[in-house]
Amino acid sequence: MKSNVKLIDRIFVPNLLGLAENKRYVVDSGGTRSGKTYQKLMAIIHFLKRQERKEQKCIFSIVSRSIPHLKTGAIRDFKDLMQNHFCYWDDEKWNITDRNYYFSKNVILEFFSCDNAAKVHGPARDYLFINEAQHISRDIWRHLAVRTKYAKLIDFNPTRKFWAHDLPREFTTWTDSTYLDNPYLTENQVQEIEANKENKTWWDVYGKGIVGKPENVVYTGWEKITLQRYLDLDKEEFIGDDFGYTHPMALAGCKYDDFERAFYLNEYLYKSFIKAGDYVKEYKAVGLEPDGETIIVCDNARPELVNDLAAAGYYAIAPKKPPVISRIEFLRSCKVYYTETSTNIDYEFNNYLNKKDKDENILDEPEKKDDDLMDAIGYVTWFLKSHLGIKMINE
C-alpha cells in the first residue's frame, strides 16, 4: 500500500504504535489545524490494512458529537485519505446508510455519533477513536470506554480542562501539537492563524495549544472540599434532580450553612440512558433510600417521574421553575463549595457557558449544554431560597 502523504512522526507514530502495542489511551491535544485528526486517521487506516492482511477480526469505532460533524470532519478526511493518498477506496465497501467501511467482512470501520443511544449503549468494539472529545460528556465516554476491548484514541482542542485530562498518565501516550507541526498548511493559512495573536484567549488555545478557561463561564469562585467535610456538616440535606435520558440524569445533594451563607454540594448521580422505570433503582444504588423525609426537588417537566418517586416513598416535589437567569443570579450571590469527588459538578462548573452574540459579546444567558447538574443544583438552591428564607444580597 503506497501513500504520498508525508508522515508527522510525533502524531502518526504514537498512534500507530499505540494501536499495535495495545496502549490503553492515545491522546492528542492540539490547537487549530495541527493535523492531529488527519494523522490519527492515517494511523487507523495503516492499522486496519494490517488487520486485513492478517485476517484478524476487528471492529473499530470512530465517534463524534453529531452526524453532521462526522460528515464534514472525520468521514470527509477518511474518504480523502483513502481516495487521494492511499488509492484504496472502494465504493462497494462503503455502506452509506450505516456509515461503515468494510476493509473485509471481518475488518470494519464504523462511524457514529454519541447522540445515538443504541450505539453508545450497544455492542462492544475492539478499538475506539473519539474525535473532538471536549464535546463528549464524561458519562458518554465511560459507556464507550467500558465497551472497548483494546486501545482508545482521543483528540481535542484544549478549550478547557475536561475528563481527558484526568486519564491516568501511566497508561496514556500524550502528544501536544499546534499548527506549527502541520507541514501541509499554506502560507495563507498560517498567516490567517497568526493574525489572531492579539486575541490572547483565542491564541492561547488555538494558536499555542494551551488549556484555556473560557471567558464566558457562568459561575466563578466555587471551591472544592473533601467528601468528609460535606458528610460532617451538621445541616439538613436536600436533593436536586434533573431528569434525563440522552442527557444524563443528574442528582446533587445540597446543604446550606446560614452562618457562611454557603451552599455545600455533593454529586450522587450523573448517568445517561436510564429508563423511566429504573429511576427508583438508581436512587437506591447511590444510597438514597426512600425515607419520606429528605426533600427531593425535581424537574417539573416530567410529572410522571415525580409521581413514580413519590409512590416509592420519596418526598419528591416539583415546584414551578423561575427563569434560569434568576436561579443563576441567586447562586452567584452565595458562596459555593463542592466535594472533590464530584467530577461532573467540576466539569460543568468549568464548562457551563454564557452565550455570545455574532460579534462575540458575552450575553447574560447560558448555553443549553453542560448544564444537567447545574440545573439540578439550580432547582434545589432556588427552592431553599424560599424554604429557608435566604435573601439575595440586594433584597
Provide a descriptive summary of the structure in words:
The protein is an alpha/beta fold and 395 residues long. It folds into 2 domains: 9-201, Rossmann fold (3-Layer(aba) Sandwich), CATH 3.40.50; 223-387, Nucleotidyltransferase, domain 5 (2-Layer Sandwich). 34% of the residues lie in helices and 22% in strands. The chain has 14 helices and 17 strands. The chain has helices spanning 9-20, 36-53, 67-72, 74-85, 117-120, 138-146, 187-194, 200-207, 227-232, 279-285, 303-311, 324-332, 343-351, 372-387, and strands at 25-30, 58-64, 94-95, 100-102, 107-113, 127-130, 152-156, 172-177, 223-225, 238-242, 249-257, 262-271, 295-298, 315-317, 335-339, 354-356, 362-366. Strands 3-4-5-2-6-7-1-8 form an 8-stranded mixed sheet. The longest helix has 18 residues, at 36-53.
Key terms:
disordered N terminus, seven-stranded mixed β-sheet, alpha/beta, Nucleotidyltransferase, domain 5, Rossmann fold, eight-stranded mixed β-sheet, 22% strand, 395 residues, single chain
Q: How many domain units?
A: 2
CATH architecture of the largest domain: 3-Layer(aba) Sandwich
Structure annotation, total helices? 14
Mean pLDDT: 93
Low-pLDDT runs: 1-7
Under CATH at level 1, the class of the largest domain stands as Alpha Beta
CATH H-tier superfamily of the largest domain:
P-loop containing nucleotide triphosphate hydrolases
Strand content: 15-25%
Query: What does the radius of gyration come to?
Result: 24 Å
What does the overall shape look like? globular
Q: Tell me the number of strands.
A: 17
CATH level-3 fold name of the largest domain: Rossmann fold
Task: State the major sheet.
Answer: 8 strands, mixed
Give the strand order, joined by hyphens, for the main sheet.
3-4-5-2-6-7-1-8
Q: Span between N and C termini? A: 72 Å
Helix fraction bin: 25-40%
Structural class: alpha/beta
